């Protein structure tokens, strides 16, 4: 009789012989590869921050990135892993085992570590260079020690209440293969809340002239985005899935979705004659690769190549329209965090239940799973929003939110805004800054007719 070859979730290649004995041979070591890719991703995000965020002191960006990486790693391994893994209590929290105990699966813990570090990197896109060091540490503590560990346990562990449950007497399943919600939604939403609480320096991205872009910034951001794309592959390495086959087609889906999204965004820029190619439009074309990756992250393991390509194409429209709208607003999202990680992750998570294969794949089961995804997404968004908004608001009230430079910029912006002829609502100030508004352009020296400089 022929032998049967199977893969298990620990990536051991097993041969089940006809006599019932099992031989195992290690064919790969994903943990070291995952660590390497995550470190590469953090380097990429650092380059993106240096080339995109208008902060005079680049050393501040470098320092905050290394502090963030080390801090969230320490907090997660000491506190977060206790919540996320090794046991379960009613599908809500882990068994409470410390990382040093033998019962803890270190490979499993590293999966959560990768998710925490990546989400923290996404969050920093909205606040790096602007926050006080104490505030930075508090936000990192909440992400790595509380918010994400609970999300990991709820969604990625076998007994998590979101992953498997019942709705209207039907078994429902929340599918998130590579962190569409656990990583991208949590990180993107946290960064958005921080950016909104920090407020703007009455700055519009489309008002920044070429003199504000340092020489070499485009190359720095370009290289950084490619590193981010490569580093995100760490989230697609199967380890937490129970007895899943190694789907190398996942990486094919990644390449197809990323390529389709990027090519179509380039095409959109060519089809719009009024939008010339500059630093921001070229970076948008590169960022589209990551947007396509985020779009399929929830179900990259179940999508066919054709579906992955179509979803990548749909991500191009969503990403392009969102990024253009934010570009023309006063929301300071220099790294396109919202368009890439937040918006694409929400739509990707809503679409994945339509493609999950069930034993009895009728319309009622598909509908129940779609409703379950809606319920879970609403719960995740509300939970993250409540915790992070409260944290940022407290930091704002205690004076621990802004660093000195950001405090002065915000004060100048507030004074300039007070000179306007009409008081605007919060959303108008944030999203509908007209051409006659006053704005600050860090790093520029020429006079623009549309505003005053400070």
Automatic annotation (TrEMBL):
Keyword list, A-Z: Ammonia transport, Membrane, Transmembrane, Transmembrane helix, Transport
Transmembrane segments: 35-55, 67-87, 110-129, 136-157, 177-199, 248-270, 302-322, 334-358, 370-395
UniProt-listed Pfam families: Ammonium_transp
Membrane topology value: Multi-pass membrane protein
A single Gene Ontology CC term: plasma membrane
GO molecular function terms noted in the UniProt entry: ammonium channel activity
Residue ranges occupied by any Ammonium transporter AmtB-like domain in the UniProt entry: 36-406
GO biological process: ammonium homeostasis
Subcellular location: Membrane
PANTHER family named among the record's database cross-references: AMMONIUM TRANSPORTER (PTHR11730:SF6)
Similarity field: Belongs to the ammonia transporter channel (TC 1.A.11.2) family.
Record-given protein name: Ammonium transporter 1 member 3-like
Organism (species): Ceratina calcarata
Gene name of the encoded protein: LOC108622860
